[in-house]
Amino acid sequence: MSSSLDAIHRDLISARSLLVGLFYLLFALINYTTMLDEIRLSTTLLAVSVTIVFFMLSAFHKFKDYAATYTNHLSFVELGILQADGMAFLILTQDIMSGFGVFIMIMSTGIFLTTTPWILASVIRLSASWMFAPWTNDIAILIAREGLLWVTSVIFCFFFYTLRLRSARRLGEYQLRQDAYRAQLEGAAQKSKR
């Protein structure tokens, strides 16, 4: 099951990295036009840097031949890059609302990673950094609101992962039934020729 999810993910990882790069290019433009003067340059350069990294990662995924089993490793690194960007943006803006991207990242681990250990490691890493950054930088946080968002994002993460597993399992079972049916038909055709 995991190898089938890895293969599917390997087929799409280049496009995903390209899309992330394009989104960050848009974020760079938004940061340049909307941020306060004292953080405009920093936030814009941060987004441009992430854009360049993800464009390079997209090219790497597209042109480098590597086994699908490494997809989780590379996705984990990519999530780390996004995590670092999110925490830097949170610290630069000093606004907890700027760190809400971590909730999207937590939910996306259920889509982008293909095994429970990788998902757990990612959720723990993302959660720890998100909890650590506000407290070490004196950023106001409302535990009830952010806690609810965190719990919700973790639940959705595992919901998406379970949904993907069940879909892949059912697709695999369907393929096995089709193969068995095809074998029966071929067997019947061989018998009728005799």
Q: What is the averaged pLDDT score?
A: 86
**What is the element string, with H for helices and E for strands?**
HHHHHH
**How is the biggest beta sheet arranged?**
none
The portion of residues forming beta strands comes to under 5%
Domain module tally: 1
Class inferred from helices and paired strands: mainly alpha
* Total count of helical runs of at least 4 residues: 6
State the helicity in percent bands.
over 70%
Summarize the structure.
This protein is mainly alpha-helical. The protein has helices at 2-34, 37-63, 71-93, 101-112, 116-136, 143-193.
Keywords:
mainly alpha, 86% helix, elongated, 0% strand, 6 helices, 194 residues
Overview of the structural elements:
There is one protein chain. This protein is mostly helical. It has one domain (2-193). Helix content is 86%, strand content 0%. The chain has six helices and no strands. Helix 4 packs parallel to helix 6. It is elongated and about 85 Å long. It starts with a helix and ends with a helix. The mean pLDDT is 86.
Topology:
Layout (H helix, E strand, L loop, with lengths): L1 H33 L2 H27 L7 H23 L7 H12 L3 H21 L6 H51 L1
Helix pairs in contact: 1-2, 2-3, 3-4, 3-5, 4-5, 4-6, 5-6
